[in-house]
Amino acid sequence: MKDRIPLKEGLRAKGKKVKSKDKETIRLGYEEIELDYVEQIVDKSQTNAIAEIIRYMEKYIDERKSLKEILKAVFKDINEKGLEIVSPFYGKHPGNLALPRIQEVAAAINRLRSFKVK
After folding, report:
1. d(CA 27, CA 33)
2. H/E element holding 75?
3. Residue 73 burial (CB < 10 Å; 0-12/13-18/19+)?
4. How far apart are CA 13 and CA 28, in angstroms?
5. Distances (CA, A) of 46 to 10, 56, 65, 108
6. What is the C-alpha R_g of the chain?
7. What is the pLDDT at residue 95?
8. CA 92-85-67 angle, 5° bins
9. Pick from 105, 88, 115: which is nearest to 47 by CA?
10. Going by DSSP bridges, is the β-strand pair 18-22/25-28 parallel, antiparallel, or unpaired?
11. What does the alpha-carbon distance between residue 73 and residue 42 come to, in Å, rounded to a whole number?
């Protein structure tokens, strides 16, 4: 199976409002990501973290790295610097965040209609 390499325009979060509405919905600008069938998400704080991880991972998209490599790099940052690294309030109180698994983040990205790969 061929690796999926994200395109920058498919995951633009910069300048867009990124937030979770509830445990099952993330809003990225005007687009909603429905997570109804991602059963492993048990709390809204995980959805908050997924939303912030999507915003944070944009810095790794260079149209050469695969989605898997990008997610591994993001989770390496989280393991080394803490979950607050993905927060827009880094260094201050990170907000209501709980660490999701890498699979839940990938599931959210797969449900993003604007997500494009080459």
Report:
1. 6
2. helix 67-81
3. middle
4. 7
5. 23, 15, 25, 12
6. 13
7. 74
8. 155
9. 105
10. antiparallel
11. 24
CA-CA distance, 73 to 93, in Å (whole number)?
A: 23
Check whether 1 has a pLDDT greater than 80. Answer: no
Instruction: Give me the amino acid identity at 29.
Output: G
Closest to 109 measured CA to CA, from 31, 22, 1: 31
Identity of residue 83: L
Is the CB of residue 98 less than 8 Å from the CB of residue 46? Answer: yes
Render pLDDT for 18-70 as a digit per residue (tens, 0 to 9). 888 889 999 988 889 999 999 899 999 999 999 999 999 989 999 899 999 99
In the structure encoding, which two tokens stand for residue 10, read together?
A: 């498919």
Written as one letter, the residue type at 18 is V
User: Which secondary structure element, helix H or strand E, spans residue 80, and what is its range?
Assistant: helix 67-81
Residue appearing with tokens 């939303």: 51
DSSP for 37-69 reads T-TT--SHHHHHHHHHHHHHHGGG--SSS-HHH
